[in-house]
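Handoff note, outgoing to incoming analyst
You'll be picking up this chain. Sequence as last confirmed:
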Amino acid sequence: MLQDHIFVRDSWLKKSGNEDIAAKFLQASFKGWIFCRDNQSQCVDIVLKAGTTLGKGHMTWQLNEINGLIWPSPNASALWTKPRGIRQSTSHDVPGAEEQAR
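Most recent structure output, in case you need it:
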């Protein structure tokens, strides 16, 4: 699903300074997901105040489902414990991902 990914053109990423912008964007995104993991009701309220057409019950359910996918283990995230910059990768390419998820 396209809404579940972050895309960037290789030509944009190769321009001076853009890799740093992309890394900072990802770090801010991770920080937001960590906040939503730790503050679920506040996160739902933020989304509701931003103007979603879906109700509080649905948004709460959706966040619970997403958190279960992002944080499958109580000891680690799925893949994002420490962002190390931008690269094309799969879960098999992330160093230590299996160890962190145990």
